[in-house]
Structure formats: structure tokens, C-alpha cells
Amino acid sequence: MSAVVHLSFDADALTLRTVRSGQIDDVQRLPLGSAALVARFFKRLPPSAYALEEAIAWVEDAVTPLAAQLPTDALWCSDSPAVRDLDLGAQAAELDIDTVEQLFNALADWVQGHPAALAGIPQDAHWCAALLVLRECMHHWRCPVLVLGTGAD
Question: Under 8 Å CB-to-CB from 127, ≥6 apart: which residues?
Fold first, then answer.
């Protein structure tokens, strides 16, 4: 690993700290906090299919430009409570892209009319926002696995 990327997500922002050789090399802060997503796209639950598509596009527009600036072989990690909550109490050591995609598919099923309880996801707008942001980040930033914890600097 050439770098460790610490991902922090909260109500206000998504922040990335890239650490190389034990030193913070770069900090990126995007206005993609759960509060903005909830206010703009997830006012009602489940969100409409249109609102979900609009939210995806909005997040993609914010995260895609950073892809070229991020290390391609980094260790990705997060100790943010909002990210940890995505593992639905499994207390996993990491989240992989397949798990995140399965959760997102459950969200999409809920949007299409399937009960959230049957899909196994919380009926919580901030949880939905965190899932959406993490999914788009993992896809666009070539992050196959996110370690849940501080990682190794």
C-alpha cells in the first residue's frame, strides 16, 4: 500500500485524509453530509425512484472529479459511526463493495415498494444517505474494501 485514505462521513460533510509515510499528504472535504442529502432527496421515506436517481447523480457529480487525484492502491478505512452503522450490527472488520451493493439493492427494492423490514434495512433517512454516498465513493474511487476502524498509518 502506498497510502491510507481515511474516509469520514457525518451530517455535514464527507472528508478524505490521505496519509503517506505516516504524514497527512492531502485533505479533501466535500459537502456531501447526510443532512444535505436528507433535506434535498430523502424528505420522505421511502424516497421516490426519481429522488433516488437525482441523489445518485448529485453524489456522482461531487465524487467523480476526485477519482484521478486519489491513490489507486490505497488502504481505505473509516471509523465514522455513520459508516459503521451500515454493517447493520454485524460488527464486521470491513465492508466490501459487494456487501454495499447488496444493501443498496435492498434500498432500491424498498423504493420500488417492497417493505424495508423484508429488505433488512433501517427506515432511516440518514442511514440511506450514508449508504448512497459510500456506494458511489467505492464505485468511482476504486475502493473494493473499506476497513472499519482507523487503519494502519
Answer: 82, 85, 86, 121
For 57-71, the pLDDT digits (tens) are 999 999 999 999 999
Distances (CA, A) of 73 to 5, 31, 43, 70: 10, 25, 37, 9
Q: Which CATH number fits domain 4-148: 3.30.428.10, 3.30.420.150, 3.40.50.1240, 3.40.50.970?
A: 3.30.420.150
Whole-structure pTM value: 0.92
What residues does each domain of the chain span? 4-148
